[in-house]
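Give me the fold.
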Amino acid sequence: TCSRMEGPSVCVCVCVYPQWASVNRAVLICDQCCSVHRSLGRHSSQVRHLTHTAWPPTQLQMVQTLYNNGANSIWEHSLLDPASAMGSRRKTAVYDKLHPNKAEFIKAKYQMLAFVHRIPCRDEDLLAARDLSKQLHSSVRTGNLETTLRLLSLGAHANFFHPEKGTTPLHVAVKAGQVSQAELLGVYGADPGAPDVNGKTPIDYAREVGHMDLAERLVEIQYELTDGLAFYLCGRKPGDTQDLTELAKAAKKKLQLLSNRLFEELAMDVYDEVDRRETDAVWHTTQTHSALATAAAVPFLPVNPEYSSTRNQGRQKLARFNAHEFATLVVDILSDAWRRQLGNSCAVLKGFAHQPNRVPNVH
């Protein structure tokens, strides 16, 4: 049992003593399953090691609560339903081969969401998605995290602005003091800086009602991207331009010329690359004597079907940057983010201040 999780822990493939967790899926996974989850990309499964990765305590509590209350059944709904045509399909077991058995099952389950109860069908289901998002407003004021995760898995939007109530789900969760609900919404991209009909943000309400710890955590979520980049640099200050080569200066100039939208996309992509590199470092540290160490390498960011082929190619090229080149790029992004904020381009920081981890549509 992991020291950070209370009670016995079992991977969803029934392997005992899992050492990893998928934060947005709220399941615990073993090394083998993790090797596949990492290849899916952060947009499908955000993995963290239970002991070698730093966890915000309230986020860990949220994952543990969902895990203990059977979050896995959300992703395996049709497999567990005797009335379903898929009810006869067998989920993988410990003795099954990683490739292709477990790998194919994991991709179907978490990337394609093949076994989720029901998934909206694009245009004709916009009203249904809207209704799910309204239900989300009601769900997050309670302590029932499983209902919220199920609604999000079906297509409810974490940032849905309720036209009658004039709030987002995060406003509702904060007013009700539901810390774990706020954490879950944050994982799925809820913006702590989004104003309600009165111009107040969830952070404002947390401070007003005296939930100072929650307010501080919401600020962390809001600036997860920029804080994460700064932490990756291990203390390097944004804007430190000494010893820049002419090539680096030219690259910095190109960065400044990007539109807010393109700058936002680049910042999010670099944040994903930081997460890939850090997870890769933890992976190799924990797999020193395992055959999985090299066999399950994730050499560059996996393709995100929601992005254009040009953007996906650019994301994968980030892996070619050596440590110094990549650190320079991170510094430049932090510096330019600050410049744009001072230049009153607040929309930029609102767009990428936190990294959304939403349930992807079926591609």
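Strands lie at 20-22, 27-29, 47-49.
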